[in-house]
C-alpha cells in the first residue's frame, strides 16, 4: 500500500464559483463562499475579477479545469458579461470532457429566462448580436453561448428566488459536501492506492458506524507503513455521514511548531464551521471542546500522535462528543491508545502488492521490462513490504538505464543497517548540490508551510527554487498538499535532519532548528562557517554572546520568531549584539531587543528584513546600500522614532510601519522608491509629515488612524490600475489637487476624517472612480458642484456629514446604485433650522436602487416632487424625518421592495400603494400621528413584512388576504379598534413566519402569537398572559403535568393515526431560558429522533413571567425518514422533553377526532389528578363529560379581570370554534 504522501487529490479545488460580480459579489456569493469554506470545501473565487472584455486570464481557465464542481450563480446581469459567458462555456466543456459536476443556482432570476434567453437574458443577447452583427465568428460565438446556457439551465440546480438565503446556502453546502465525499470514495485516486480496500474494510468493522455510541479507533504501525493514507481514506469516505468532520494532520509536528491550543482552535473551527480563537491555552481549549461538541455527531482524525498530551487535550474523553461520533488516531506508539479502544495494526505489504507498488513508481504506466525483473525483486525484498521505501526507491530508479539500475540497486543493498532512515538517504545522495540544500531547508524548516512563501525564501538565497521543488516532487521526497503547502513523510523529514545531524558538533552543523542546540552555539560562541540557516519558531529564553555570529560568514537565513518582550534575554554584558553576518539574505527577528542594528552590518544581498515588534529606535545611521532589498517590515515597533534613508533601496516593494506609534516623520527619500507596491502606515498616530509618493507601481497606500497627519501626501507619477487607498480616521484636513493624477483609482475611502471641511474640485476628474465614501466627515458641509462628472461612480456614501443640499449635478450619476446621506442620531445630524433638500431628479439616477435619507430633517418639500422617476429604486429609507406628507409620485416607484418610514412622527397619511407592486417590506413603526393605513396596501401581493409598532393613533386597518405576508407587528397600537379580520384567512392561505398582535395592555391582556417554520421546527403556538389575572396554572386538559427539567411519556399502542394525529401539545408556565430538546425514542434500543426547539424565541423582548405558553409540535418536527430505518411512528414508544431549566409543564397528544382518542388506552400519570375528556387546541378551560362548555367559572374569571373582546372571551370560556379552526387550518398547511 502507498504511504501517506501518495494520497493526493485529482482536483486542486473542490468548487469553482462562477458569478456576475456586480450582482452578487458583496451579497449572496460572499455568503455562499463563506459557507463552503466553513465546511472545509476548498473553493476558488476570483475576488478581483474585473469582468471586462472577452478574454479570461489563463489562471482562471486553469482553475476551472482543476475544480471538481462548478457552482454557477445565474443572476439578472449574468449574460451581459462576455467574461461570464466564456466562463460557463468552458465549464460546460469540462463537464463534457472531464466529467466535472455542474450545479446551477438561479439567484433572483427565473430558470426559464436562462434556458430560453428571455427577459434580461434576451436584452443581453440583443446587445451581443449588435456587437457582432458583421462578424461571422462572433455570431457563432453568441450562438454557442445560447447553447451552453440552455444546457446549463436544464441541469438539476437550485431556484432560490424565494426562501431564506441562509437556509438556501446551507442546503447547497450540504448537497455539495455529500457529493464530494461520495466522489472521493469512487475516485481513481483512491482506487489506485495499492491494497487500500482491505484496510478500509477492517477499519470500518472496528468503527461500527451503525451503532449510536462514541468510539475511538487507533491505527498503529511502523513509520512509512501507510497509517496516514488509511486514515485519510477513512475520512474521505465517511465524513459526509457526520454533522461535522476534522482531519488534524501531523499532530506531532504541528504541536511542536505551535501550541496545543492552536490545534484545539483548528479542531473547533472546523467542527463548528466558524473560524475563531476559542481558546488561549490548552486547558481552556479542553473545556471548550467538551462544552461545544457535546451534542454534535463528529468524525475526528488525529494524525501522528506521539505524546499523551495530544490525546488528553484534543480528545481526552469520549463523553465530550455527541452520540454516533468517532475518533480515529494514528500513532507509532501502541501505549498511547487505551486498552479498551479498538486498534488496527497496519501490516507491511505482501510480496505481490509490494511489487505492484514498486512498479507504479519505477515504471509509471509503462509495462515493466523483463530485463529489470531481477533488480526489481532485489529492491522489493530489501524493502520488506514498507510502502514508503518502495515508493522512494521506485521513483529514484524511474527512467534510469540498465547500468544505472545495477549501480543504484547495489547502493541500496550495500546499506545493511535496518534503519529505514539510512536506507532512504540514497535518494538524497542522488540530488545535485543545490537540490540537496533546498531539500535540507525544507526538511529542517519548511514542512507544512505555504509553497509560495517557501519559494520566496529560497529564491532570496539565489536558488532555482521552482525547478528544485519539481525535482524533489519527482523523486517522491516532497509533495504539495491540497491547500498548497510543502509536505513530506515523517521518515523523509527524519532522513533530512539525520543528514544534518551526522555532524555531531552543533556549531559545525549547516542548520539549526532546535532551541537547545541554538543556545549551546550562541552562548559558547561555537558557530562556524558551515552554518547556513537558523530557524527557530518559538523561543522562551534567548541567551547569546555578543560575538556569537561572527564566524557564521555563510549564514543566509536567520529567523527568530515570536520572541516576546517579557521573555528572558541574557547577554554576556549590557551591550547589544556586535555582529550580524553580512551574508544574510532573509532576516526575520520578531521582537528584536536592541535599539539599532550593528553599525558594521552591510548585508548587500539582503532581500527580506522583518523586525516587527522590535525595540528599535532607528535601524542605522546614514545610508546603507541594499540593492536587493524588497521587503522591510518594522511594524508594531512602538519605540521607532525615525525611518532609515531609503536612497540605497532602489528595489524596495513592501514597506510596513503599522502601529509604529512614536514615528513622527517618514524620510523624504521614500519618494525615490519607484517600485513600491505596498505602503502601510496604519495606526502611526504620531505621524505628522509624509513625503511625496511615487505611484506608478503602487497598489496600496494605507494611512488609517494616522490621527496627527494633517495633509494627504502629494502624488508623483501616473498610477497603475487597482490602487487602493485607505486614510480613514486620519487627521487629514485637505486633499491635494494632485489627487487628480490617481486616474485609475476605483475606490476612495475618506470616512471618519473628522477635520475634513471640503473636497477639491479636482477629485471630480477621477473618471474611473466607482466608490466614494465620505461618511463621518463631521465637518464636511458640501460636495463639489462637479460631482456629476464622476461618470462611473456606483457607490456614494455620506453618512453623518453636514451636507444638507447635494449639488444638482448629482442626478447625472447614471451609473450610481447606492446613495446615502443618513444622519445616525441627533448629535451627528444637521444644525438646528437646517433642512435637507434633495434636488429634482429630472429622469436622472436611472440605475439607483438604494437610497438612505433617514434622520436628514426632511420636511414637506424636501423630497423632489418627481422622486417617482427613480425607476430602479429598490430600497428607500426615510425614517426619522419631519414631513407630514410624501410626494404623490412616490407611488410610481414600481421597483421598490423596501420602504422605511419609521419614526416619522409627524406623518399623517400614506400614499397610494397601488403601483408599488414589488414592495416586500413596509416599516411604519412609531408613526405616532398615523391614523389609518391606506386601503391600497391590500393589493401588495408581494408584501411579507409589515411593522406598525407603537402607531398609537392607528384606529383602522384594512382587510387583507395577502399570501406572501410573513411578519406583522401591531405591538403598542393602543387605539386599534378591533383585531384585524384578515387573520384567519391569511393563516389558511399562507405560511407565516411570525404573526403578532399585542392589544392595549390593560384592557386586552391577551398576547396572541403564532410561529410556523416549515423548514425546521414547524411549531404552532399560543401565548396567554397579562398583568391583571394569573395564568400560572397548567390547564387541566394536559394529561401529564409536573415541575422538572424533563418529562418522559410512554406512548400508547398505535398512537399514531394518519390524517388524524395533529401533534404533541406542550405547555409551560413562565419564562424559559435557552432551548428545549425533544426526543422520540423507539421501542427497541436503536437510533431515535431528536430536534432542538427554540421556544425561547417567543419570549424574547418582553416579560413572560406570568404567561402560559402552549405549543403544538407536529410529528413532522421530529420525524426524519432518513433515520427511520423502515420503522413507522408506531414503532416509537417514548417521547422525552428536556428543558434548559426547571419549569412547570404539561403534555398531551392531540387528534382531530375525539372518538379516535377515546379508543386509545392511555397510561395515566400518577401525579395527574385531572382526567382528560377533551382534545382541542388552544383551549384554556374544560368541557363537561357531555361535551358542553363549562363556562361559569371561566366567565367569572374573565369578568373579574375586566377583559373584553369577543376573541378573548371565547378563548377563556373554552370555545374552540375560533382557535381550533385557526390551528386545524395551520396544521393542513404544515402537512
Automatic annotation (TrEMBL):
It holds the Pfam family LRR_8. It is found in: Membrane. InterPro entries: Apaf_helical, C-JID, Disease_R_plants, Leu-rich_rpt, LRR_dom_sf, NB-ARC, P-loop_NTPase, RPS4B/Roq1-like_LRR. SMART domains: TIR. GO terms for cellular component: membrane. Residues 11-180 form the TIR domain. Residues 1164-1185 are annotated as: Disordered. Keywords: Coiled coil, Hydrolase, Leucine-rich repeat, Membrane, NAD, Plant defense, Repeat. This is ADP-ribosyl cyclase/cyclic ADP-ribose hydrolase. It comes from Solanum verrucosum.
Amino acid at each position: 500500500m502507498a504511504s501517506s504522501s501518495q494520497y493526493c487529490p485529482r482536483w486542486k479545488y473542490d468548487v469553482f464559483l462562477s458569478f456576475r460580480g456586480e450582482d452578487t459579489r458583496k451579497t449572496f456569493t460572499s455568503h455562499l463562499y463563506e459557507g463552503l469554506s466553513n465546511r472545509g470545501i476548498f473553493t476558488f473565487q476570483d475576488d478581483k475579477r474585473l469582468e471586462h472584455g472577452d478574454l479570461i486570464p489563463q489562471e482562471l481557465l486553469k482553475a476551472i479545469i482543476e475544480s471538481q464542481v462548478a457552482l454557477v450563480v445565474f443572476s439578472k446581469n449574468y449574460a451581459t458579461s462576455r467574461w461570464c459567458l466564456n466562463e460557463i462555456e468552458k465549464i460546460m466543456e469540462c463537464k463534457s470532457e472531464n466529467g466535472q459536476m455542474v450545479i446551477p443556482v438561479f439567484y433572483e432570476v427565473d430558470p426559464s429566462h436562462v434556458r430560453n434567453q428571455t427577459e434580461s437574458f434576451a436584452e443581453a443577447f440583443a446587445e451581443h448580436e449588435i456587437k457582432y452583427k458583421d462578424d461571422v465568428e462572433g455570431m457563432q460565438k453568441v450562438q454557442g453561448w445560447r447553447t451552453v446556457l440552455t444546457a446549463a439551465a436544464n441541469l438539476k440546480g437550485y431556484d432560490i428566488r424565494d426562501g431564506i438565503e441562509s437556509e438556501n446556502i446551507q442546503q447547497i453546502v450540504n448537497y455539495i459536501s455529500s457529493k464530494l465525499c461520495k466522489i472521493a470514495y469512487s475516485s481513481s485516486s483512491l482506487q489506485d492506492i495499492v491494497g487500500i480496500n482491505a484496510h478500509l474494510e477492517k477499519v470500518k468493522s472496528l468503527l461500527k458506524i451503525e451503532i449510536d455510541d462514541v468510539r475511538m479507533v487507533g491505527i498503529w504501525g511502523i513509520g512509512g507503513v501507510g497509517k496516514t493514507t488509511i486514515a485519510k481514506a477513512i475520512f474521505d469516505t465517511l465524513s459526509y455521514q457526520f454533522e461535522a468532520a476534522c482531519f488534524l494532520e501531523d499532530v506531532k509536528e504541528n504541536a511542536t511548531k505551535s501550541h496545543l491550543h492552536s490545534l484545539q482552535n483548528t479542531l473547533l473551527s472546523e467542527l463548528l464551521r466558524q473560524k475563531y480563537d476559542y481558546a488561549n491555552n490548552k486547558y481552556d481549549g479542553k473545556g471548550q471542546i467538551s462544552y461545544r461538541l457535546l451534542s454534535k455527531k463528529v468524525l475526528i482524525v488525529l494524525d501522528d500522535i506521539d505524546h499523551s498530551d495530544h490525546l488528553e487535550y484534543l480528545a481526552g474523553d469520549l463523553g465530550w462528543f455527541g452520540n454516533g461520533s468517532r475518533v480515529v488516531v494514528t500513532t507509532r506508539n501502541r501505549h498511547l491508545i487505551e486498552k479498551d479502544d479498538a486498534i488496527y495494526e497496519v501490516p507491511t505489504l505482501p510480496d505481490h502488492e509490494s511489487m505492484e507498488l514498486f512498479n507504479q513508481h519505477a515504471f509509471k504506466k509503462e509495462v515493466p521490462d523483463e530485463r529489470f525483473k531481477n533488480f526489481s525483486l532485489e529492491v522489493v525484498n530489501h524493502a520488506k513490504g514498507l510502502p514508503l521505501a518502495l515508493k522512494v526507491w521506485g521513483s529514484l530508479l524511474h527512467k534510469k538505464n540498465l547500468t544505472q539500475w545495477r549501480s543504484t540497486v547495489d547502493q541500496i543493498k550495500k546499506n545493511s543497517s535496518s534503519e529505514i532512515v539510512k536506507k532512504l538517504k540514497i535518494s538524497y545522495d542522488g540530488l545535485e548540490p543545490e537540490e540537496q540544500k533546498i531539500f535540507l531547508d525544507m526538511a529542517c524548516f519548511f514542512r507544512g508551510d505555504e509553497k509560495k512563501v517557501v519559494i520566496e525564501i529560497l529564491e532570496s538565497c539565489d536558488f532555482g527554487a521552482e525547478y528544485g521543488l519539481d525535482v524533489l516532487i519527482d523523486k517522491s521526497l516532497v509533495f504539495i498538499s491540497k491547500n498548497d503547502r510543502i509536505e513530506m513523510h515523517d521518515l523523509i523529514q527524519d532522513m533530512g535532519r539525520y543528514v544534518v545531524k551526522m555532524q555531531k558538533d552543533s556549531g559545525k552543523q549547516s542548520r539549526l532548528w532546535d532551541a537547545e542546540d541554538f543556545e549551546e552555539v550562541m552562548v559558547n560562541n561555537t558557530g562556524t562557517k558551515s552554518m547556513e540557516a537558523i530557524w527557530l519558531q518559538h523561543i522562551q529564553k534567548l541567551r547569546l554572546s555578543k560575538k556569537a555570529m561572527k564566524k557564521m560568514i555563510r549564514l543566509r537565513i536567520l529567523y527568530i520568531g515570536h520572541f516576546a518582550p517579557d521573555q528572558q534575554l541574557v547577554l554576556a554584558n549590557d551591550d547589544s549584539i556586535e555582529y550580524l553576518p553580512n551574508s544574510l539574505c532573509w532576516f526575520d527577528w520578531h521582537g528584536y531587543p536592541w535599539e539599532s542594528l550593528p553599525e558594521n552590518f552591510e548585508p548587500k544581498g539582503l532581500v527580506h528584513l522583518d523586525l516587527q515588534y522590535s525595540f528599535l529606535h532607528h535601524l542605522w545611521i546614514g545610508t546603507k546600500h541594499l540593492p536587493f532589498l524588497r521587503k522591510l517590515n518594522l511594524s508594531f515597533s512602538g519605540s521607532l522614532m525615525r525611518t532609515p534613508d531609503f536612497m540605497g533601496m532602489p528595489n524596495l516593494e513592501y514597506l510596513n510601519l503599522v502601529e509604529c506609534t512614536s514615528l513622527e516623520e517618514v524620510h523624504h527619500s521614500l519618494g525615490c522608491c519607484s517600485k513600491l507596491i505596498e505602503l502601510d502606515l496604519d495606526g502611526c498616530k504620531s505621524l505628522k509629515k509624509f513625503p511625496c509618493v511615487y505611484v506608478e507601481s503602487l497598489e496600496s497606500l494605507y494611512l488609517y488612524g494616522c490621527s496627527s497627519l494633517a495633509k494627504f501626501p502629494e502624488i508623483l507619477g501616473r498610477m497603475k490600475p487597482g490602487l487602493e487607498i485607505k486614510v480613514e480616521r486620519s487627521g487629514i484636513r485637505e486633499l491635494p489637487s494632485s489627487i487628480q493624477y490617481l486616474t485609475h483609482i476605483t475606490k476612495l475611502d475618506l470616512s471618519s476624517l473628522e477635520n475634513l471641511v471640503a473636497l477639491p474640485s479636482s477629485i471630480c476628474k477621477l473618471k474611473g472612480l466607482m466608490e466614494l465614501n465620505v461618511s463621518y466627515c463631521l465637518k464636511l458641509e458640501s460636495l463639489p458642484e462637479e460631482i456629476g462628472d464622476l461618470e462611473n461612480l456606483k457607490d456614494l456614501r455620506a453618512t453623518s456629514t453636514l451636507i444638507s443640499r447635494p449639488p444638482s449635478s448629482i442626478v447625472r450619476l447614471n451609473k450610481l446604485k447606492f446613495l446615502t446621506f443618513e444622519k445616525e442620531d441627533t448629535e451627528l445630524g444637521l444644525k438646528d433650522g437646517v433642512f435637507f433638500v434633495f434636488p429634482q431628479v429630472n429622469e436622472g439616477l436611472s440605475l439607483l436602487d438604494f437610497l438612505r435619507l433617514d434622520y436628514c430633517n426632511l420636511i414637506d418639500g424636501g423630497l423632489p416632487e418627481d422622486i417617482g422617476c427613480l425607476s430602479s429604486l429598490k430600497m428607500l429609507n426615510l425614517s426619522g424625518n419631519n414631513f407630514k406628507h410624501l410626494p404623490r409620485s412616490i407611488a410610481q416607484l414600481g421597483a421598490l421592495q423596501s420602504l422605511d418610514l419609521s419614526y416619522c412622527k409627524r406623518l399623517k397619511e400614506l400614499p397610494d400603494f397601488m403601483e408599488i407592486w414589488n414592495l416586500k417590506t413596509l416599516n411604519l413603526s412609531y408613526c405616532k400621528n398615523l391614523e389609518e393605513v391606506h386601503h391600497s396596501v391590500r393589493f401588495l401581493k408581494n408584501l411579507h413584512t409589515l411593522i406598525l409598532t407603537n402607531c398609537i393613533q392607528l384606529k383602522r386597518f384594512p382587510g387583507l388576504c395577502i399570501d406572501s405576508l410573513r411578519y406583522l407587528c401591531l405591538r403598542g397600537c393602543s387605539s386599534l379598534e378591533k383585531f384585524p379580520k384578515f387573520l384567519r384567512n391569511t393563516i389558511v392561505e399562507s405560511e407565516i413566519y411570525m404573526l403578532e398582535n399585542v392589544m392595549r395592555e390593560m384592557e386586552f391582556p391577551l398576547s396572541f402569537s403564532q410561529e410556523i417554520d416549515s423548514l425546521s421546527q414547524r411549531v404552532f403556538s399560543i401565548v396567554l398572559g397579562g398583568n391583571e389575572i394569573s395564568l400560572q396554572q397548567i390547564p387541566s386538559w394536559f394529561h401529564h403535568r409536573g415541575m422538572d427539567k424533563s418529562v418522559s411519556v410512554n406512548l400508547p399502542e398505535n398512537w399514531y393515526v394518519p390524517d388524524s394525529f395533529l401533534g404533541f401539545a406542550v405547555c409551560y408556565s413562565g419564562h424559559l431560558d435557552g432551548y428545549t430538546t425533544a426526543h422520540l425514542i423507539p421501542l427497541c434500543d436503536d437510533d431515535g429522533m431528536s430536534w432542538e426547539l427554540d421556544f425561547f424565541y417567543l419570549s424574547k423582548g418582553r416579560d413572560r413571567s406570568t404567561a402560559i405558553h402552549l405549543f403544538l409540535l407536529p410529528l413532522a418536527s421530529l420525524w426524519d425518514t432518513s433515520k427511520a430505518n423502515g420503522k413507522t411512528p408506531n414503532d416509537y414508544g417514548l417521547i422525552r422533553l428536556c428543558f434548559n431549566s426547571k419549569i412547570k409543564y404539561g403534555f398531551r397528544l392531540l387528534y382531530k377526532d375525539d372518538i379516535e382518542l377515546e379508543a386509545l388506552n392511555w397510561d395515566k400519570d400518577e401525579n395527574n389528578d385531572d382526567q382528560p375528556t377533551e382534545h382541542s387546541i388552544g383551549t384554556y378551560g374544560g368541557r363537561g363529560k357531555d361535551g358542553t362548555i363549562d363556562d361559569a367559572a371561566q366567565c367569572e374569571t374573565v369578568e373579574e379581570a375586566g377583559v373584553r373582546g369577543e376573541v378573548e372571551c371565547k378563548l377563556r370560556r373554552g370555545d374552540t370554534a375560533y382557535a381550533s379552526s385557526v390551528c386545524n387550518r395551520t396544521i393542513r398547511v404544515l402537512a
